[in-house]
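Limitations

Structures in this collection are predictions, not experimental determinations, and the ligand pose is part of the prediction. Treat each record accordingly. The example that follows, with FO1 as the small molecule, is included so readers can see exactly what is and is not provided: the inputs are given verbatim, and the output is the predicted complex.
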Amino acid sequence: VLCGGVGAAKLLAGMVRVLEGDALTAIVNVGDDFELHGLEISPDLDTVVYTVAGAIDPERGWGLRDETWHAMEALSRYDTETWFNLGDRDLATHMYRTERRRAGAPLSQVSAQIARAWGLGLRVLPASDDRLRTIVTLAESGEQVSFQDYFVRQRHDVAVTRVDFDGAADAAPAPGVLDAIAGADVVVVAPSNPLISIGPVLAVPGVRAAVQARRDQVVAVSPIVAGQALKGPADRLLGELGHERSVLGVARLYAEIAETLVIDEADAGYAEEIGRLGLRCVVTDTIMRDPDRAARLSQAVLAAMP
Ligand code: FO1
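Predicted complex:
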């Protein structure tokens, strides 16, 4: 499963209910990663681990439930940035990852240790162990900012003209990524933002080609329902970056790499047009309101292949 953040994590939490954990490999975006207060932070990797572990905060969709914020309150005394909230328990994950990375462990090894520490059966792989950062160019000023500055500090309510993946050209797929794609019975593109979550995963040299080579076994799930993103800026970004703000825009982005596109019942009217783009279209309820719905969507995704 190619993953971004929240939508992907919810689907994975459903998939582990219908598959044995060890039958599942999550290949997770690292373009949102960044360093803050000397800590290495990997939001999409942590959101996947916390959600599948059942420890995620259900309202926020990121960070841990029952969290406290004393460290951030204490930090606000000093002249440093506090727009990115790190909960007291969440800090332990960033401290551990930073400690291991400073000791020379690759991100893939640290991610495996974190997943194991949370008792997860599935494999959690970063798309790459190398530095890859999503950089967003703002329409207003032409300024280039980090993903988290755009997404969190500016609450992503600023127009964007470009998205670049710094370091992608020199990045290598993390160990196991290409084998997982080549060997999978089904390759799933999770309902994450096609441009800023799945894009950086496919931008790692070799990954897009590996997925394309399996196109007949690739099933993508649209993160856009009735022209809207369920969470985050995917709909606006599609429009700002010149794509159609609908499942058709998603279908065009995925046509080369996926045979099948799963869309929500709200978009059933698009099924024929999607078929004309050369994709098979499966229409089902894709809104994962709870783990049962996520499990049912997972079954539909796994059954979607011809
Ligand atoms: N998102 C926010 O909107 N505000 C935050 O303060 C915030 C903190 C945060 C801390 C750890 C973490 O793993 C994720 C966090 N996120 C926060 C979400 C994060 O920006 C997004 O999950 C991804 O980068 C996009 O999927």
